[in-house]
Amino acid sequence: MPSSHALLLCFCLLIFTVHARLCGDVECPRSNACCSDAVHGPVCYFPQFYHCAVDRFTPYSQSLCARGDGSCATVCYDAKRYDCVGGQIKERIKQRSPFPFYPFKNSENYSPIIDAMPSMISEQKEMPNLYLLTCRYYIPQFKPHNRATDVPYMVKVLVAGAAGGIGQPLSLLLKQNLPAGSTLALFDVVNVIGVGEDLSHINTHVKLEVHLGDLKNPSNTTELDKATQNLDLAVIPAGVPRKPGMTRDDLFKVNAGIVKGLVESIAKNSPKALIAIITNPVNSTVPAAAEILKKAGVYDPKRLFGVSTLDIVRAQTFIGQLKGQNPAEVKVHVIGGHSPETMLPILSSVSGISFSEEETSSLSTKIKEAGTAVVNAKDGMGSATLSMAYAGARFALGLVKALNGESGIIEDSYVDTSSTDLGVSFLAVPVEFGKNGIEKIHPLPQMNESEKKQLAELIPIVQKNIDTGLEFAKSA
Ligand SMILES: *[C@@H]1O[C@H](CO)[C@@H](O)[C@H](O)[C@H]1NC(C)=O
Ligand SMILES: *[C@@H]1O[C@H](CO)[C@@H](O)[C@H](O)[C@H]1NC(C)=O
Ligand SMILES: *[C@@H]1O[C@H](CO)[C@@H](O)[C@H](O)[C@H]1NC(C)=O
């Protein structure tokens, strides 16, 4: 051992023997203080870098945090930017996200914090060398508090069909908006390597995993099985758009086949993952997916969603335009099925806005026919992809926020309603998200007589679509 090190060690031992004081069963030197950390027990710490923060949620407990940080339900957070509200870390300033994702509730004043902690890790590295070399014992013996112990704040999200028209912009929005430290897995059978390389240059702390499936041999699921490991959420826009000459039934058979392969892999590798299906026709692909999950023995109706969010996004936009209001703040439900014949915008319960008979009729038609309007305007070049990606991202990020413990996020979604008294096994209804997917299916919004009548008429149509989906899955 070099003599200077020996000297430092002596110096260190000297401090230890002369000035040591007890901190649990550890003795701290005089330059250290002691903190009874709620998670790690008594730890010595160096007050130049850390402080023992009184917890803002449970005031009788303390956490060792970086100086200037607060403690919220044992999690350290940057007290300059965040507050502890009811045990959750919330951003202080009014949200200024370019994507005002949640029109219904929550985030009026707060958005959840994504990564409260990394400051501690870097400050720990800045410990003077003297301590690192000689008094290793006195360096705080703790790992930074990690929210992952109670909530999965770094999620893994899969986009299946990531190179497609919806998949690409959807992956972009998720790369931009997922919590720091999350993983975004991209799967497709064509072009996904390039999409992944392109997205990988975006400077957000979201890791990318890129998986190119075997187009020629769909039964080779090697890459898909890698993509579906450890998933918290799978978003599925994969599928083919309807081509000229293709009936809706043809479309369904092709797309249901694609969804089947994906869902089987998810069932095998991440049976607890939430699954959000965008692939059309949603009225049938979602019930088909449910049947596939049942066959695999892992079906949980709380974890499977059909994304009908674009219907709500469109309704918000058209109502906002018509009435001169901010579309992001329009509160409207669109329930029923996810097709022109079956969707039902509930205009009578839009708060603070009333509509004439004429407005109701033209708005309803505009909302229902919006998909066709895009198909016509694109003139043979496809259907809605950008707005669908936006809606899919809003839905997926809502689920991720709920996985992180945020409450009060409600979206209309096409889900299993067999546990309700609606008399149909799947329907788009108001759903509150939670840590296990569906926290609660809310009662249908208030409807007036004509809306009630329309609902009663569309339910048998939806049930017929569901049966088609079930038949496919049973025979497949
Ligand atoms: C399956 O796909 C993987 C990855 O693309 C490839 O390495 C492997 O050779 C393929 N196996 C078969 C049997 O085709
Ligand atoms: C139901 O509500 C819509 C939208 O406000 C309105 O236009 C329609 O006249 C109402 N129908 C009945 C029967 O009250
Ligand atoms: C889904 O709904 C649309 C519109 O109602 C319908 O044309 C289509 O046939 C349905 N899908 C299936 C597979 O039944």
UniProtKB/TrEMBL annotation:
Residues annotated as signal peptide: 1-20
GO CC terms of this entry: cytoplasm
Database matches in Pfam families: Ldh_1_C, Ldh_1_N
Record's keyword terms, sorted: NAD, Oxidoreductase, Signal, Tricarboxylic acid cycle
Biological process (GO), any one: tricarboxylic acid cycle
Chemical reaction(s) catalysed: (S)-malate + NAD(+) = oxaloacetate + NADH + H(+)
Keyword S-adenosyl-L-methionine annotated: no
UniProt EC number: 1.1.1.37
Assembly information from the UniProt record: Homodimer.
Similarity comment: Belongs to the LDH/MDH superfamily. MDH type 1 family.
Entry protein name: malate dehydrogenase
Organism taxonomic ancestry: Eukaryota, Amoebozoa, Evosea, Variosea, Cavosteliida
